[in-house]
Design a protein that fits this description.
Blueprint (H helix, E strand, L loop, with lengths): L2 E6 L2 H10 L1 E2 L3 E4 L3 H6 L5 H19 L9 E7 L3 E2 L8 E4 L3 E2 L3 E6 L6 H8 L7 E2 L2 E2 L5 E4 L8
Antiparallel strand pairs: 1-4, 2-7, 3-6, 4-8, 5-6, 8-11, 9-10
């Protein structure tokens, strides 16, 4: 049995994952946890997974440096074991202790355009992503990419 986790990355971290062919453990990720289900008892599995993916997307932006693309970047992976971190502020947060080989990576979820600085600042301050900034349409949902396409994201 495995658990689907959503791993927040920056573009430079993604380049390292692709070069190494693995996610090097230990690392933090987001997933559906008992704490999330308790906090949102009327949510569905799909809604809980979306919440975990969204939390990973927000974290990916918070981790980026000036050299990284201003995009949310999340890898979905299936791992054999996670350790909940019992973080009340972020109930989806878990630790994955072991390396995750490339074959366990299921997909990537990425913004298809760079987030303009105004949208990036607003999003990181806790506001919702606007529909558009300076004439650039922004999609609230991350685009899905198959594992074969991940190398093209670099």
């Amino acid at each position: 049995m495995t658990t689907r986790v959503f791993v927040p990355l920056t573009s430079s971290e993604l380049a390292r994952v692709v070069a190494e062919g693995r996610l090097a453990g230990p690392f933090r990720a987001h997933t559906v946890t008992g704490a999330l289900e308790e906090a949102w008892p009327d949510g569905s599995t799909e809604e809980w997974e979306y919440a975990a993916q969204a939390a990973a997307g927000t974290e990916s932006l918070a981790r980026r440096t000036e050299d990284d693309q201003p995009r949310r970047l999340v890898l979905a992976a299936d791992v054999p074991q996670v350790r909940p971190l019992d973080d009340e502020a972020e109930p989806t947060l878990v630790e994955v202790e072991a390396d995750v080989p490339w074959k366990r990576i299921a997909s990537a979820h990425v913004d298809v355009v760079d987030l303009p600085p105004a949208a990036l600042a607003a999003y990181l301050s806790g506001e919702e992503l606007p529909d558009s900034v300076d004439g650039v349409e922004l999609d609230h949902d991350l685009a899905w990419f198959a594992t074969q396409e991940i190398r093209n994201l670099l």
